[in-house]
Amino acid sequence: MIKLEQVSRVFPGSEVPAVVDLTMTIGDGEVCVLVGPSGCGKTTTMKMINRLIDPTSGKIYVNDQDTSKIDPIALRLGIGYVIQEIGLFPHMTIAENVATVPREKGWPRDRINQRVDELMHLVGLNPGTYRNRLPADLSGGQRQRVGVARAMAADPPILLMDEPFGAVDPITRARLQNEFLRLQEQMKKTIVFVTHDIDEAIKMGDRIAVMRDGRLVQYEEPDKLLSMPADDFVATLVGRNRSIKRLHLIKVNDVVQNETPFVTPEASVDEIRSAMEERKTNTVLVVNAVNKLQGVISRAELKGVEGARAAQIAQPVQNTVEWGATLNDALAVMLNYGERYVAVVNSREELKGVITLNYLLDLVRDDAAA
Amino acid sequence: MSFWEFFITRLDRVWALTLEHAWLILVAVAIAIAVGVLVGVLITYSRPAAHGALYFCQVMMTVPSLAMLGLLLPLFGIGFTTGVIALTLYSLLPIVRNTYLGIREINPAVIEAARGMGMRELSILRRIKLPMAFSVIMAGIRTATVMVVGIGAIAYCIGAGGLGEFIFRGISQYNKDLIVIGAVCISLLAILADFLLKRTEKRLSFRS
Amino acid sequence: MRQRNRVLGWTVMPLFLLACGAFTIYYFVENPGGAMAARLLIYPNVFKLIQQHVLLVVVSSLLAIATALPLGILISRPRFRTLGLVVENVVNVAQTVPSLAVLALAFTFLGWGFNTAVFALWCYSLLPILRNTYAGIRSVSPSILEAARGMGMTPGHILGRIELPLATPIIMGGIRTAVVINVGTATLATFIAGGGLGDLIVTGIGVRRTELILAGAILSAVLAILLDHLLSQAEAEFG
Fold first, then answer.
1. Which uninterrupted H or E stretch holds B196?
2. Which pLDDT tens digit goes with each residue over B148-192?
3. A267 and A217 within one domain
């Protein structure tokens, strides 16, 4: 747990303090994103946690220990630190870069080598290929991965990340973010993440601290930040289309509707028709006895097929999303296939329910009204 | 007697003086590296000290070498030591300046990353700063060495020995062969030193 | 602030150095420390040596600028590209040759005297100016040149209005290096009877008279620092 108590920092020769009276708590295993325009004090705040910068006043506790009473070297060796790709040591190989902290801690050579290979696998770089390359030989995305691996070398419980995915193209960034979120799900590190990109903050953060002119404006979960911005500044920062942004946050698991109109593969055309009448829809899904999705039937396909069974008429379903996807993913699939609903299936293709366009519209409308 | 016959008869002397000259350079540059790199590293921690030290070295460099030798003579007397001191002073500037610049030019983000990960200042110096500044420092050492090979020849006139003997004897005896031997040997020594240092630098520096 | 630094640079520092020089002359002429030195340390002789020294430096430097600058421009022209590369490499090696060696070699075929010394100094100071002129012009970015050509500028205009102005700081740096080297090498001119302040130092070493050595050494050092300072001011002004 990281606790900041009324922390302020004034840089010598500057009239305006960089950080003013900041109080916040970051829980164990949480990703806390510090976000705000450049010069808002987010990076200064982060650097005060590992004492690259010392606060002018106030106290910072890491695991209930006052950091000002810990030797800064010992403190930093227990906190992973990732900065933009330029922070890699250009004269050292990838393996040497990753081994920095273990070497500093004096681990035996075998253990270091083993750990380096482990970490490179973890971040998706083949040690055989990349161990002895120099940072200059790697792509931007690969360098960021090395940066993450290097920070995790000694398995520190806390990670500080300063725009770790800042210097790569948007597609690579999205991939790195997803990979990192997947890693975090297993690692459960306490992470302080600095970014100026509000979308990245919403995607990565368990809690978001919006900063402005050295002050903490709002410290909330992403969902609350979007639905209840504390003031105009936060509202502008999160943007006009914040109800659409909220779709990023909501998982289909939480809102899937179970009252799906479906029929068995053996259903006759009459049974299919009455199912449609009953639900007032033009389509029904075909689901077998073990809940596996077999296909979809629309009203137009019922003409001239009297006597057939549902299994024979059904078309394959393409507009599905997987269990765990976000509403934004669901919307994208709808738009992609021009359908007004998506089917939610799990990894064994069992139908979990559907999400309709009307539901999404209602959600966004309610939000805008709130 | 042709030039070559003359050269052959003097071969022993040529060899002896070349070694003497090389030894003078080696001692002076070795001391200058030890002192210069240390000073260059220390002044990276204080901007005013850096400005002062670099300005001092810069002014010292403009002092003509004969004048420098003349100024040191009353203090340290005639001989090898005075020569070494003068040569060391001259080689300090390029080494101090290049060590300082080499370290200052390192991307601050790299050093901050090292500090942020908990590296101690000494290991940052040993494993990050000096290796990254290595080629710049080597360039300074090369400049210094080539320069003092030439000044070493002048140091003959304060009794420091070396290949200057051929040139000064040649001038006073109006012996052109002697002058040519001296001039060529000194030049070759300078070119050789430059070449060897360049190769050392290439071999030791990281592939970038 | 910059303005003030500039004015100070042109006035206070040069005046201070001149005062140092004047005091040195006064002190050693008044306290020559022996009959032997007293014969050399008289005002007319000291001024004559200073004059010789300055003349050696100024004449050789001007000649070097007059030859190296056009030559540097010439070899930077695209049609002499290979020649430029060759010259660059030759100059790099030639610069490792010590100045004393150049002076001595000039002596072997030109004999004693002032003119030989000027020739040697000229030869030696050609190199930094030539190298920097070439490097300065070559450092102008090709896209700037292409833009100039695209706007229809003639090669002469491109040289005069684009390449030379952009290369000026580097060329000035070369000239400064050359002049400082010349002040130093000029003290060696005494060995081939070229005159200059080296006379005092070398005679002083020969007869073991500290006053002579110090007078020559301090004056030539002051001269070198003064010229270097003035040129660095000029560099800041026009570079």
1. helix B176-204
2. 998 898 888 888 888 888 888 888 888 888 888 888 888 899 889
3. no
CATH number assigned to the domain with residue range B27-160+197-204, chosen from the 4 options 3.40.50.150, 1.10.10.650, 3.40.50.10380, 1.10.3720.10: 1.10.3720.10
What's the whole-number average pLDDT of chain C?
A: 86
**Domains within chain C, CATH numbers bracketed:** 2-238 (1.10.3720.10)
Tokens standing for A10?
A: 């004034």
Q: Which pLDDT belongs to residue A181?
A: 85
Cβ atoms C87, C75 nearer than 8 A: yes
pLDDT in tens, A59-84: 999 988 999 999 988 899 889 898 87
A167-187: b (≥16 Cβ within 10 Å) or e: ebeeebbeebbebbeeebeee
CA distance C169 to A317: 72
Residue C187 carries which side chain, given as an amino acid letter?
T
Per the confidence metrics, is the pTM higher than 0.80?
A: no
Range of the domain at A129: 2-249
Structure tokens at B85: 């001191």
Q: If contacts are CB pairs under 8 Å, which of residues 91-110 in chain B contact chain A?
A: 107, 109-110
pLDDT for the residue numbered A8? 92
Whether residues A75 and B110 touch (CB distance < 8 A) is answered with no
Contact B148, B65 (CB under 8 A): no
ipTM: 0.80
B residues 115-174 near C, CB within 8 Å? 146, 149-151, 153-154, 157-158, 164, 167-168, 170-171
In angstroms, the Cα distances linking A120 to A115, A178, B179, C224 are 9, 17, 65, 59
Cβ contact, residue pair B109, A86, below 8 Å: yes
Q: What is the residue extent of each domain of chain B?
A: 27-160+197-204
Task: Name the residue facing B191 among C93, C105, C183 (closest C-beta).
Answer: C93
A196: domain CATH number is 3.40.50.300
Residues A169 and A59 in one domain: yes
Burial (CB count within 10 angstroms: exposed 0-12, middle 13-18, buried 19+), residue A255: middle
Residues of A in contact with B136 (CB under 8 A): none
| B72: its two tokens | 């040191």
Asked if the Cβ–Cβ distance from B146 to C96 is below 8 Å, we say: yes
Question: Any residues with CB less than 8 A from the CB of A114 and at least 6 apart, and which?
Answer: none
